[in-house]
Design goal:
Length: about 350
């Protein structure tokens, strides 16, 4: 995408979105956020609110006239709004599916109408059960039955990608697709049940760390500031037009090893407890052994490298868990299992990185 001055960030009050907004404002851009505050929070945008070039509009990406009006004001769109997280998808499975397909179509269509370039957020869930080592952007998708809720999220995101690609090829829309792998860091919604903040909270509280399944499943984690740095590089790079990029960390670790590492780094006396998938997520849960991104394409185009090591990602999560325990962060802030979430939330529809 070429240099743009005014961005519409859908889902900008969320975890990744709010960090992106901070980055765009710091780079001197103007930003309009459209967010229905379902999993996002206005508090995530506290520092953004102090900028004259910032505006938060509370509303839905399903509201076509509103999306049209806001897109007209902007010259680029970053579409991050999505129904994500266990609670939302269990309570409103159909609405969530519709948000993730119709909402994206509405935003893409408006971007095309107003000549805006668009970045569409996708996910490593796209690759499904493909566990064949480092996954390049052209790797196969291996999915289970559409009746398993997990694959409906993957399918919706795949439809989003297809839409973006077809608008690019047939209608000339400038599009870039980014597939996030296991992004972690401050302001993360508790709805995910993400494994790093959950382990950190358990270790800091002296509770057992619950490892789902065998613990041999392997994952990579990337700090949100590194993920946002990648996004910012792609936003300014015309060669990203029409392309898809993985964004993820490079240090692979099994979930069992991660638990031990969190305990060691926290200096905690917690034990590790294994919970069968069936108990954690209900019957029929399917998982992948390994989820490792190949980020060669992103690196070669932009020179991006993650700056935070896994040790630093874990240390940051422990520090945040301590702040939350000590009441320095409100109990219902993102990253805290507040707002009615159980201590170990079940995740039949898992976002990346359980
Ligand atoms: P998030 O839940 O913090 O952000 C999503 C935002 O979208 C929230 O602020 C929510 O309020 C908003 N939203 C939901 N429905 C909306 C609607 N109908 N209209 C307007 N706003 C709406 O989650 P996140 O982790 O920041 O995710 C951002 C994007 O990245 C999502 O598209 C998600 O699928 C994708 N992603 C994230 C990860 C990760 O590891 N965090 C991994 C893969 C993909």
């Amino acid at each position: 995408m070429n240099y743009c001055t005014t961005y519409l960030v859908t889902g900008g009050a969320g975890f990744i979105g709010s960090h992106l907004v901070d980055g765009l404002l710091a780079a001197g851009r103007r930003v309009v956020v459209l967010d229905n505050l379902s999993t996002g929070r206005a508090e995530n945008l506290a520092s953004a609110m102090e900028h004259s070039g910032f505006r938060l509009v509370q509303g839905s990406v399903l509201d076509a006239p509103l999306v049209d009006e806001l897109t007209r004001e902007c010259d680029a769109v970053v579409h991050l709004a999505a129904a994500v997280g266990v609670k939302l998808i269990i309570e409103q499975p159909l609405t969530s599916f519709i948000t993730n397909i119709r909402g994206t179509e509405t935003v893409i269509d408006a971007a095309h109408r107003h000549g805006c370039g668009i970045v569409v957020a996708s996910t490593s869930e796209i690759y499904g059960k493909n566990s064949h080592g480092a996954l390049g952007e052209m790797a196969d998708r291996i999915l289970g039955s559409p009746s398993v809720a997990r694959w409906s999220y993957s399918t919706a995101k795949a439809v989003d990608e297809v839409l973006a690609n077809l608008y690019h090829r047939e209608r000339g829309l400038k599009t870039t697709i980014v597939r996030f792998f296991n992004v972690v860091g401050p302001r993360q919604s508790p709805a995910y049940g993400m494994v790093v903040p959950r382990f950190a909270r358990q270790a800091v509280a002296g509770e057992s760390l619950t490892v789902h399944g065998t613990g041999r499943q392997r994952r990579c984690f990337v700090h949100v500031t590194d993920a946002v740095a990648a996004l910012l590089l792609l936003l300014d790079n015309p060669a990203a037009n029409g392309e898809t990029f993985n964004i993820g960390g490079e240090e692979e670790i099994s979930v069992g090893e991660l638990a031990e590492r969190v305990i060691a780094q926290a200096g905690s006396a917690s034990a590790v407890r294994h919970l069968p998938y069936g108990e954690a997520y209900g019957p029929g849960f399917e998982d992948m052994e390994r989820r490792l991104p190949d980020t060669t394409k992103l690196r070669e185009l932009t020179g991006w490298r993650p700056r935070h090591s896994l040790g630093e990602v874990v240390a940051a999560a422990i520090a945040e868990a301590r702040e939350q325990r000590d009441g320095m962060v409100p109990a219902d802030a993102p990253g805290v299992l507040g707002r009615g979430s159980p201590a170990t939330p079940p995740a039949p529809v898992a976002e990346d990185g359980r």
